[in-house]
Amino acid sequence: MAANKNQSDSEQSVMTTEPLAVQGPKPARRWWHWHEPGASKEEKWLIFKLDAAILTYTCLTFFVKYLDQTNVTNAYVSGMKEDLDLHGNQLNWLTTYFNIGIIIGAPFSTLMLTFVKPRWWLPACTMAWSLLVLGMHKAETIKTLYILRFFTGLCESGAMPGSFYIIGSWYRKSEISRRTTLFWFSSVGGQMLSGYIQAGLYRNMNGRLGLAAWRWLFILDFLISVPVVILGLIICPDEPKAKKVWWMSEEERQRCIERMADEGRDAELFHWDRRLIKRVLTSWQLYAFCLAWAFMELTCGVNLQRWMTLWIKSLRVDGKPKYSTEKVNAIPTAVGCTGLVWMLLSAFIADSYQNRALPICILGCVQLFSYIVLLVWPDNESFLMAAYYLASAYSALSPLISAWLNSSCGGKNQLRALTTGLMISIGYAVETVAQQEMFPISQAPEFKQTHGYAFGIAWIAVMIIWCSVCLPVFERYRSAGHLKSGGEL
């Protein structure tokens, strides 16, 4: 019996150790991999469906948002300034009123996600701001534009936190940087396309049906938005634990829930109470990422394409404009092209090495160099143009920080949603004051009197230190259990 027992124990030992030998080390993930190494065909098909629905809709929504957010700059240099007799810093004020709408609306829109499903709320917001943009084509005074821009910002405030929330609810930590980068791609695409559209409208539609080309821009932007609203009503999902969407089977929905649970992100649906709010307000993420976003926005890099547009428009040869109106709108769009390259490179580095501090540091240093060149303002047009293009490294910071926030909050949906909303509001708030005081249009493009670029350099340095040194330290302390992450949400 002892022999049989020993033989049985030996067989059991072989049976328990054999699978471990077969598993081997996990394959390394290369920068070109879109999925986790070793992902099954079913897993790849599921991720493809998530990308086809979630990324398509959120990217188009963000594309339309930035198309409608930046169109006033293209309209300004294409006849609106002269037709409405705009002067001084009124273009700054158009941005300021828009930003005030965002500041007020972002936290409110985030809270609305607790009462209204994203698949209804986000398309409704898109439709509302698109109608306001359409109304801008009839504006005859700057006061009318101020009012419309404020309410446009108020309605657009739901696009960014709502889209972040949806993306963060469905993707793994190792997948989210690439997807967030694609999401931000669409914002750059919106800025670029606005310039191309205005250039084409100025050439082909100026004066058609008695409307100036800049008025046609607002009409066309509205028409582009309508299909996105319809698409959202059809394919936009809610959270994995909410009601199943039509393009996903019940088995796939359960698999999505398991994917999140595997990473400690077994999130429950929204249910607010006083105890929950206290836990959110005492979490480190709420303050650390709001500060990171604020430091980034204080550099005012979001206005780079506007600054370059005004610089191109100011260039003269023998007292005449060096570039036509079409080229004034088209040339600065290259800032977006270089921004896309920075986004791709930084996303692949972040996902491949699971390190977001390194690419943020590199991008910050590139932006720092560019601002130094713009501060010196050399008498060399090509060098200045290169500095503007390099400064587009700023574009890649937003997807890295937002993806970092999503993965850091884990399955704490309430913490993630509230932090995203406050982060965006605070960012717009500080950027509104900074662009108004340090980068007034009346001082463009050099901003010598206000020392705008010197101001930007200081905040770039602060942002690099905070994101590349402080945030990784907070992450290590969190992993060791020394920091609160919103409690057991």
From TrEMBL:
Residues 54-478 form the Major facilitator superfamily (MFS) profile domain. InterPro entries: MFS (IPR011701), MFS_dom (IPR020846), MFS_trans_sf (IPR036259). GO terms for cellular component: membrane. It is a multi-pass membrane protein. One of its GO terms (molecular function) is transmembrane transporter activity. Its main location: membrane. Residues 1-16 have a biased composition (Polar residues). The chain crosses the membrane at residues 94-113, 145-170, 182-201, 213-236, 284-308, 328-350, 357-377, 383-405, 417-434, 454-474. It comes from the Eukaryota. Keywords: Glycoprotein, Membrane, Transmembrane, Transmembrane helix, Transport. The keyword Glycoprotein applies. Pfam families: MFS_1. It is found in: Membrane. Residues 1-22 are annotated as: Disordered. PANTHER family: PERMEASE-RELATED (PTHR43791), TRANSPORTER LIZ1_SEO1, PUTATIVE (AFU_ORTHOLOGUE AFUA_3G00980)-RELATED (PTHR43791:SF39). Belongs to the major facilitator superfamily. Allantoate permease family. This is Related to permease of the major facilitator superfamily. It comes from Fusarium proliferatum (strain ET1) (Orchid endophyte fungus).
